[in-house]
Structures are given as C-alpha cells and as structure tokens.
Amino acid sequence: MAIDKAREHLAQFGAQDRILEFETSSATVELAADAAGVEPARIAKTLSFDVLGGTVLVVCAGDVKVKSGKFKAYFGVKPKMLEFALVEPRVGHAVGGVCPFGVNPDVKIYLDSSLKRFETVYPACGSDNSAIELTCSELQEYSRALDWVDVCEVREALVSAQFFHFYIEYANNC
C-alpha cells in the first residue's frame, strides 16, 4: 500500500508515528480540512505534472491554483497535469493520496511558496484518508524537495467566500 511507502519514507526522519489516519476520506482539500479540523488553505495538496516527459510534483496550499505563466517561467513549459491513469504508475501513489513521501525515484518535488504563510501544513501520506502535520522546514527536509517555487496564486473565489464568512461573523458580533 502507498501509505506504507510513505510511512517507511517518514521513518527515516522519525516521523512515521505522526501520520494521522482518518475514519473518513481526506481525498480532497475540503475533506482533508474537515478530517484534520483545519482551514482548507493549510492542506498541502500535491499536484502531479508531466514536464518534458518527466514527473514533477508541486506541493502547494489548499487555497491556490497553478498560474500557467508562472509555471512556464520556472519550468519552461505550460503546466500539463498527469492523466488520472498515469498518476499512480508515474508517482507511486494514487489520486487522493498523492504526497511527496515515498514516491518513485525519478519524481522531482517542488514546494510552492504559498505554504510559507502557515506555521504548519497537512500533506497527505499516500492514502485517501491520511495526513501529517509538518512545519514548512520539516516538509522541505522530509520531501527532499529540490526547490521552493512561486507558481501559484490564491483562488479569488475562495478569498471572496472567506471574506464573506468573516464579514457575516463580524456583523453578527457587532
């Protein structure tokens, strides 16, 4: 199982016992946030791309989307997400549990600067019902990321929704 690969990988850092396994699915940002009891932005989603025939993972905050121009400026090509059927064979984890731990040897991992807003974040751990709480420095070390990149931007609709909820909450407390 892929969670076992992630657990074995994290054992190198003594972090295998910090994996959280949920009774419910954590396969999407929203489900993972509910399961972990945190805001969706703190979920460190891992996106899989084909870059010139190679596999690249970009780990980013749960409230962002990849911006084509930024991605192309860094990687030299437009972003092309891996097809669903290719994710598991090329990454080593199935969709819903893709994470930067215990991946296939030729996979290149990058962390997006959108994560640096948070003291801790929650990437998946190889299954559709797992995560681990890590600081950004732990995530960088444990994932063996090649670099921090800036290829994402906060989704405006989500920001607007968060502002709306904040405004309603504020208005109700006045």
Structural class by helix and strand composition: alpha/beta
The Rg value, from CA coordinates, equals 16 Å
Please estimate the helix content: 25-40%
At CATH level 3, the topology is YbaK protein
Helical stretch tally? 6
Lateral arrangement of strands in the main beta sheet = 8-6-2-3-5-9
Mean pLDDT: 92
**CATH architecture descriptor text:** Alpha-Beta Complex
Q: What is the CA–CA distance across the termini?
A: 51 Å
How many discrete structural domains?
A: 1
Q: What coarse outline follows from CA principal-axis ratios?
A: globular
The biggest sheet, with number of strands, parallel, antiparallel or mixed sense and barrel status, is: 6 strands, mixed
Strand share of the residues? 15-25%
CATH superfamily: YbaK/aminoacyl-tRNA synthetase-associated domain
* Secondary structure tally: strands: 10
Order of helices and strands: HEHEEEHHEEEEHEEH
Identify low-pLDDT runs: none
